[in-house]
Amino acid sequence: MLLILIWCIAGLHSTSAQPPELPGQPSILLAQEGVPAPSATPVDYEHPQAEVHENEHEDPLKDYRGESKSSSKSKVFFGILLVLIIGIMSAEVVDKSIVTLLGAITCLAFAYSPFFELLRHDAGGHGHPPFYAYVVDWSTIGVIIGTSIFVEIASRSGIFTWSALKLTKMSKGDPYRLLVLYSVLTVLFSAFLNNVTAMIIVGSLTVVSCQRLEIKVLPYLFIEGLLTNVGGLLTLISSIPNIIVGNTAGISFAWFFVIASPYVVLATWITVMMAKRKFDTIEKLEDEAAIKEAKERVEEFDENEVVTDRKFFVIAWLGMVAVILGFALQSYLPVLSDMGLEAVALGAAALFLLLFAPHKVEEALNTVEWSLVVFFASLFVIIGVMELAGVLEAIGDGLEILLGLGGMLATAAVTWSAAMASSVTDNIPLAVVLAKILSLKGAESASAYWWAVIFGANLGGNITPIGSASTVVAMTVIKKQNVDLSFLGFVKMALPFAIVQLILATVYLAALSGVGMVVNSLTV
After folding, report:
1. SS3 content of the chain, % helix, strand, coil (to 5)
2. Using an 8 Å Cβ cutoff, are 39 and 445 in contact?
3. Are 230 and 267 in contact (CB under 8 A)?
4. Rounded distance, CA 431 to CA 112, Å?
5. The dihedral of CA 247, 249, 255, 260: what is its sign?
């Protein structure tokens, strides 16, 4: 928690010795999923989701900014406020959604107050939405709501129970083999879908499998939450930070896969091995009698008995395939590329409500985790105010000090610092800030610093339960199964995995540098 404050202070120190604004410096674009922020230098983006603003000098928040600009006072004050919000959240005195909601209101109140005047009092007029509505990433909110409704209605067909029983039978009742199967499925889903959808779908299957085998669900959901962030490293389009940093750096889709895929395979294997040692409930069956008993037990499962309506079942399968393809290809389809990922999720939800629950809409809406929606919406508002206050800018300025270390030391420092920051704040605006700094420093596409930001921003989400959307969803599913796992309990379990994954990333980048695939400097 202190890292944000330290970076703010470091950023203040670094900016005090230089002009406050660099020529041509772009503004920070807040968490709009699928729409990366402009870089310092116009870039030809290869991915349809990534768009370059025609006017790179335009401030997306100019209609909301008050008379006072961010200053040292606002950076320190709001940096401390952010640390306090995170601290109260980690103490778990009250639900995290209440903490973020009150935190968002407090941040807005101070931003409007005469002490700071960061927001205009008439902001939101003249055809513009209110600031708190503008900064919320409605794409993420729409995906959560739409996917939750779709999964709930589709599950009534028996599709998830059927799929889970199939996977369970493939595991032959072996808890370790079941973990391997679900781990691979999680990584693949996370590579081509957004992490929230991947976690919701895989989590639904996992709960059914564990209930049938009468084994603890916590280890599986926990590992799946971590692996969604690992799988999010696989391709250029696997996560928004990848798109932002990769395209700003000019890294092609193919080269991104060549660099990232070996790490994803290694990290997945090591994570599964660590899970096997960590949780005694997923030990591989060695005893012949136990293997035979487990095999006989799963052979008794009849996946077809859960299918009561064959037509509903087939339509649910077709809908699931369509949703997965929609998420994977949305960026390339003419109309959907403009409408966003939320159009796929909400469209599927609306269609299934119409077909299978036309008179039970309220019942379906009650299945949505509204506390999760409130949490994310409030968090986006907090991050938006932090941008106005200059906290994110200060964090980015602090990065310049790390780059001054030079060589592999700088690469390692950027990786770990980005991970620490990502563990307590949204990695999308963080990626924007760090990519901006590297671009302004003239980093070439072969620089390892780009990859340090990519690895750090993604893997940092595995440190805390609020580090990424997928770990938040994983915690929600875990608690829904009446499993008690606190904020600090998650951190205690996750920290060894995150540290090993980050050490592996550091060593991996050093190895890439050793063979000349990347360079530990800004330029070749």
Report:
1. 70, 0, 30
2. no
3. yes
4. 27
5. negative
The Cα 187–Cα 431 span in angstroms is: 21
Closest CA to 384 of 24, 88, 31: 31
Q: Which residues pair with 65 in a beta bridge?
A: 119
Of the candidates 147, 142, 256, 247, the residue with the CA atom closest to the CA atom of residue 202: 147
Phi, psi of 519 (to 5 degrees): -125, 140
Using alpha carbons, select from 501, 426, 11 the residue that is nearest to residue 227: 501
The three state secondary structure string of 401-454 is: HHHCCCHHHHHHHHHHHHHHHHCCCCHHHHHHHHHHHHHHCCCCCCEHHHHHHH
- Give the lowest-confidence range in 191-195, 219-223, 468-472: 191-195
- Predicted local distance difference test score (pLDDT) of residue 237: 67
- Residue for token digits 């990347």? 518
β-strand partners of 447: 519
pLDDT attached to residue 8: 52
Give the Cα separation of 445 and 524 in Å (integer).
9
Q: Is the dihedral of CA 6, 12, 13, 18 positive or negative?
A: positive
pLDDT at 30: 35
User: What DSSP letter does each residue of 196-238 carry, written as one string?
Assistant: HHHHHHHHHHHHHHHHHHT--SHHHHHHHHHHHHHHTTSSTTS
Neighbours of 297 (CB within 10 A): 15
Q: Looking at per-residue confidence, does 272 or 366 come out higher? A: 272
pLDDT score recorded for residue 44: 40
- Evaluate if residue 367 carries a pLDDT over 60: yes
Torsion angles phi and psi, residue 3, rounded to 5: -60, -40
Quote the pTM value.
0.65
Rounded to whole angstroms, the Cα distance separating 357 from 368 reads: 15
- The Cα 496–Cα 273 span in angstroms is 13
pLDDT tens profile 44-102:
434 333 343 334 445 666 667 766 665 788 888 988 998 888 788 767 688 888 998 99
pLDDT tens across 141-180, in order?
A: 888 888 888 888 888 888 877 887 788 888 888 889 889 9
pLDDT in tens, 319-363: 988 887 887 777 778 887 788 778 888 999 999 999 888 888 888
Torsion sign, CA atoms 271, 272, 275, 276: negative
Q: pLDDT band for position 223 (50/70/90)? A: very high
Distance, CA of 158 to CA of 307 (rounded, Å): 5
Q: Domain spans of the chain?
A: 1-8+59-134+370-393, 159-306+404-524
* Closest to 483 (Cα-Cα) out of 323, 336, 281, 331: 281
Length of the chain: 524
Whole-angstrom Cα distance, residue 228 to residue 193?
10
